[in-house]
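Now produce a polypeptide, keeping tokens residue-aligned:
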Amino acid sequence: MEFSAKQIAAYIHGEIVGDENATVHTFAKIEEGIPGAISFLSNPKYTPYIYDSKASIILVNKDFEPEHEVKATLIKVDNAYDSLAKLLTLYEQSKPKLTGIDSLAFIAPTAKIGKDVYIAPFAYIGDHAEIGDNSVIHPHVTICAGVKIGTDCTLYPHVTVYHDCRIGNRCTLHAGSVIGADGFGFAPTPEGYEKIPQIGITILEDDVEIGANTCVDRATMGATIVHHGVKLDNLVQVAHNDEIGSHTVMAAQVGVAGSTKIGEWCMFGGQVGIAGHIHIGDRVVFGAQSGVPSSTKSDQRLIGTPPMEEKPYFKSQAIFRKLPDMYFELNALRKELNELKKQLNK
């Protein structure tokens, strides 16, 4: 499908600079723009590319003023990145929707399947499981007994949802993610470690997205809860009885130990490690590779192990690099001080 600059500008409430009849049929990064593609500029680092880009239409922020001639038609908007996201969503929604149940899928007789659901070959739907309207189940997905999945969900290949777990509406589970595996619970005994049965469940509320090979464990008792709008990247570990607040996002390889409560609108960089049995407030930001051993209050931006405010952290890192020289200087000063003491004591 082709769209004109005029149509696009009307949809995203933009201002056209150039040919309103310019058309596009695909997307491209600004540095890889081709005729017939729409691109965007939001990061100033990429500004030089706009002057040579062959893209037909480029989204820019309203405050962008070109220093040289730009061949592409520009559409000025409040936020180019947000506008691109809207267009990509529209593009994704325009794709033909998969429907129907393949004969090679296994569906237990007691399972309940909603309207316009797609179930691919080799998917498994267990006893008393429920799948809501318009959901898409890709090949080799395993949905165990008693699972309830809401409407408009997408489960990509090799997703596994353990028994009795709950998934809300409009959730996306990427390939290989595991929802409701046993929490890591063992009691030490003289003979070894005795497994503690994990009899709780996992609950994903509406509009949650789970990355590839991410695991959200079931609770020992009660529920591990991922609240509305949470987005987890690939390879994230959420342990038993955790509670993740609404709209919190976690980048790859974040690990959250058991029974930790995390507030709303938090942002965790890659490889952040969170200790168990603590509470993280709302709107807390942790920089990549931070180690968090204790509870933190709301509205903080922290980094490091243990975490500290950003400015003190970076000042400390600058000093840390100088520690070897400072060590030798300190030893030299000690020697001088000892010599002075000897002379004064004579």
The radius of gyration is 27 Å. The chain has a mean pLDDT of 95.
